[in-house]
Structure prediction request, 104 residues.
Amino acid sequence: MIGMGGDANEGYYCSICGGIPPDQIKIKKIRINEKETGIDRLDWILFDVYCKHLADDELITDELVKRVRQFNYIPTKKLPAYREALLREFKAFKPDGIPAGNVS
Prediction:
């Protein structure tokens, strides 16, 4: 078992490498241009945007991209593919106890 150093005030880190503890990594893989791509904190981002109750796909996608960029690099050339994939994931997202597609 990998040890974790730190505390709630200072933050936690891997006691072996000093990086993020493996159990704290929140990366979800989605398909972008037919290639699996890891997006850090995607479930959290989807839920956060869901809670904004945005109705327009363009506004939803803009918000998703803005938040994903806070934790992930999006290559400029691939931005349209990321936008499409993120919106697809958002529409399939099912927060606990709420049916998928009920995003308005």
Observations:
- The beta strands are 4-7, 11-14, 27-32, 35-40.
- Residues 26-92 form one domain.
- The CA atoms of residues 4 and 14 lie 5 Å apart.
